[in-house]
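Need a sequence for this fold. Nothing fancy.
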């Protein structure tokens, strides 16, 4: 991890695949991740941690069991720990995630959509 200034738009330009988070920076025991999203993910939860979504571009719907939360550019939403959710990108979405180091993108369900955290070049 570098201690240089990082540009969010440049970092997102370097991300090629959807649903593959890349570490932009770390602060204390947390990672700041950039990710491109498209389509629907999987229903999952993070029993031990909250998860923050910040939409940079596009529209992201965070499906919860009791409602949908619609996020547009510059909107932030925190999914509380243990709450089952399913992100759904309307078109391509660029986003920033903030969560503890080691947090798995598919939370408690695993499966073939589980992605290792990648480093930006």
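Here you go.
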């Amino acid at each position: 991890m570098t201690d240089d200034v990082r540009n969010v738009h440049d970092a997102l330009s370097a991300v090629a695949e959807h649903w593959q988070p890349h570490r932009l920076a770390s602060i204390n025991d947390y990672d700041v991740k950039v990710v491109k999203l498209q389509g629907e993910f999987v229903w999952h939860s993070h029993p031990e941690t909250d998860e923050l979504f910040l939409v940079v571009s596009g529209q992201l719907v965070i499906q919860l069991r009791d409602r949908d939360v619609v996020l547009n550019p510059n909107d932030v939403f925190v999914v509380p720990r243990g709450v089952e959710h399913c992100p759904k990108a309307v078109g391509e979405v660029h986003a920033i995630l903030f969560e503890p180091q080691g947090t798995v993108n598919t939370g408690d369900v695993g499966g073939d959509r589980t992605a290792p955290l990648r480093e930006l070049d």
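For context: Residues 8-13 form the longest helix (6 residues).
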